Amino acid sequence: MSDDIFITEERIEGAEDGPLAGKTVAVKDNISTDGVRTTCGSRMLEDYVPPYDATVVSRLKDAGATIVGKANMDEFGMGTTTETSYFGETDNPAAPGHVPGGSSGGSAAAVAAGEADLALGSDTGGSVRCPAAFCGVVGIKPTYGLVSRYGLIAYGNSLEQIGPFGETVEDAAQLLDVIAGSDDRDATTRSEGDDANYADAATGDVDGLSIGVPTELLEGADEGVVETFWEALDELEERGATYHEVSLPSVEHAVEAYYVIAMSEASSNLARFDGVRYGHSGGYDGNWNETFARAREEGFGDEVKRRVLLGTYALSAGYHDKYYKKAQDARAWVKQDFDEALSEADVLASPTMPVPPFELGESLDDPLQLYLADANTVPVNLADLPAISVPAGETDGLPVGLQLVGPAFGEERLIRAASALA
Description:
There is one protein chain. By secondary structure, this protein is an alpha/beta fold. It has a single domain, classed as Amidase signature (AS) domain (Amidase signature (AS) enzymes). The protein is 32% helix and 15% strand. The protein has an eleven-stranded mixed sheet, with helices on both faces. Helix 2 packs parallel to helix 3, helix 6 packs across helix 8 (302-315) and helix 6 (254-269) packs across helix 9. The two termini are 26 Å apart.
């Protein structure tokens, strides 16, 4: 196994039989595994060993899967390239010398490299779909509440969902069948996935399917990406689907709203890592404030510090209404626009990422460029909707992903449509 894909390479055997018996699974390193190190790609949790399994891990074991390792990720899920990991960057097996996307880059890379049949990631603003697109595999971001978050180390509670990767849509759907459903330990879960059979929906039948194309999600995208996107839509049309333009005017403000909300939630969630209750210790010299500051200075990387500081500022007295409240208002507007667009079409389609994979090291000094690269994925998280990224083709030899978005708990519809391409 490649050191740049896995942080921990400890095998965990599941039950002897079950729907995933004989399948190997890589698990993103922010998902708790009993007795196995779980670091979130951070020095802060370099030696953390959870005393329990996340619900999704328990379900993997019960289904007979073999967990082959904990996959590398951007630190605490904050990044688009997997280069912010304390343990080093991950190369892209589908495009060597380029990033695998983030933050679940190790999970996507494990599937693309054939080092795992399936993988789990988490998606707060595109962290499953971006790596799926960059690595040329399939990634599903479920509806908020379809999959339990118990045991997922939190970054942005109101936005994140655990989602599956697979080489094909049917593979990813089979993993979704195992992890979906209500959980008494996560009050945000819903029962819609309790009896679903998502793998059976991967029929590839798109006859009569209506696809809406939000024009705003094509603006500013790389020319080669857009061309590849239209070629994929033409293939769906040949199979019986139709497509037409729709509008999502609110997405102009989605990236700004997303980062205010996500950074604010990160500031709150990461406050527990003080070197005393949790995380790396900076040493104790009798002054708690200095100890706290030293632990976080040494334990967190630059991107995490940046987001915590910005989130703390957005929540501070005098600025809460100016930033956080306005961002929540924008979130409601985004959801309303998606609902209206989905009343005019069965699914919505766009390029997953507006650009092909960056070269390793290319974007590290420009965080704004990375934030803007999330323009097509973060609106879906704001709207709490499901989405899937499937390989659409290549531009200049680099993978391009097609994103399909559906109504809440419309995963079966998305899987059926996406399986016509992968």
